[in-house]
Design brief:
- The protein has 314 residues and is α+β, with helices and mostly antiparallel strands.
- Helix content is 50%, strand content 14%.
- Strand 8 (146-147) and strand 9 (153-154) form a beta hairpin.
- The model is unreliable at 2-10 (pLDDT under 50).
């Protein structure tokens, strides 16, 4: 009984902490204007925080972007924003995404969706009003946690529990999720390295390796965008020591060879990772005295400006 009460108190305190942080986010950014605009659009309209911002709050991390989900379709979102004089642009309206701009903040608003057809790179979607169906089409349980502006969670896939227990779990069938979008292989590695304290599950490892060829179907822009998210000290350090992660990572990015420098970083390396830009860190990982760096820059269409910065780092 005492153990149960202790767990209950701990869980309650944790929920209170999460709710407070979500409420603080609502107070400290102009996002409230978007909530008001969407929630007042009709008697049934609703908008919630989703994904990374909730995940980061639960893990006590800095929230550096805010994603939102709504049961309005994209045109209704545009109408709601227009009527409240909120600037926006149609970043991916065919997939249901509108980016609202208030002051210096960008807020990505995505309509609830269901996948109609996927090919490993793109998805044909239909818009929905069903929050649970939207959750079930997402990649990992830790990214399917929603919250209203007052910090009340909607967590149909039990992602909060997985996140607090450092478990990275695909939603539904892992192979199906991967075949819907092969970028999820790389995303799995990033979330595993960021949060997991466990060995890779054998069945998941087999599925990841079996489908690694699908990475070749993805655009260089998407791969490079995901690579930039790996350049944090905790991720690079764990990557340098995890045999399975390195194996997959080097299949995807064979030119990235110098990972050992992050295995036991000294103060100099820590400061460089903390304070350097993407090109500097990339240079440290690909320059090896051969044409390796030049090939990577060509393969991923790195800009001339960044290529010059890379050469200056040699």
């Amino acid at each position: 009984m005492i153990k149960f009460l202790n767990r209950f108190i701990k869980r309650t305190n944790n929920l209170n902490y999460i709710s407070k942080k979500i409420i603080d986010l609502s107070k400290n950014t102009p996002v409230k204007k978007i909530f008001t605009s969407i929630n007042n659009f009709s008697s049934n309209s609703e908008i919630r925080y989703v994904g990374g911002c909730i995940r980061k709050i639960i893990k006590g991390e800095l929230v550096d972007d805010i994603d939102l989900a709504t049961n309005l379709n994209p045109q209704q979102v545009c109408d709601a924003l227009k009527s409240n004089n909120i600037n926006f642009y149609e970043t991916g309206i065919e997939h249901g995404t509108i980016t609202a701009v208030i002051e210096d903040y960008n807020f990505e608003i995505t309509s609830l969706r269901e996948d109609v057809e996927t090919d490993g790179r793109h998805a044909q979607v239909k818009f929905s009003t069903d929050w649970k169906k939207d959750a079930l089409r997402r990649d990992f349980t830790i990214n399917a946690i929603y919250s209203d502006i007052d910090g009340n969670l909607f967590d149909p896939c039990n992602g909060k529990n997985d996140l607090e227990n450092n478990i990275i779990k695909f939603i539904g069938d892992p192979e199906q999720r991967i075949k819907e979008d092969y970028l999820r292989i790389l995303r799995y590695l990033r979330f595993y390295l960021s949060y997991s304290n466990y060995k890779h599950e054998l069945e998941t490892s087999k599925i990841l390796k079996k489908n690694i060829v699908g990475i070749s179907y993805l655009s260089k822009e998407r791969l490079l965008g995901e690579l930039k998210k790996f350049l944090k000290l905790n991720i690079l350090t764990k990557l340098s020591k995890d045999k399975f992660s390195i194996e997959l990572f080097r299949i995807i990015f064979p030119q990235i060879k110098n990972l050992k420098i992050f295995s036991n970083p000294n103060k100099f390396i820590k400061d460089k990772v903390e304070n350097s830009d993407f090109i500097f860190l990339l240079s440290a990982m690909i320059i090896d005295g051969t044409d390796n760096a030049d090939y990577f820059l060509y393969k991923f269409n790195i800009s001339k400006k960044d290529q010059k910065k890379n050469k200056n780092n040699r």
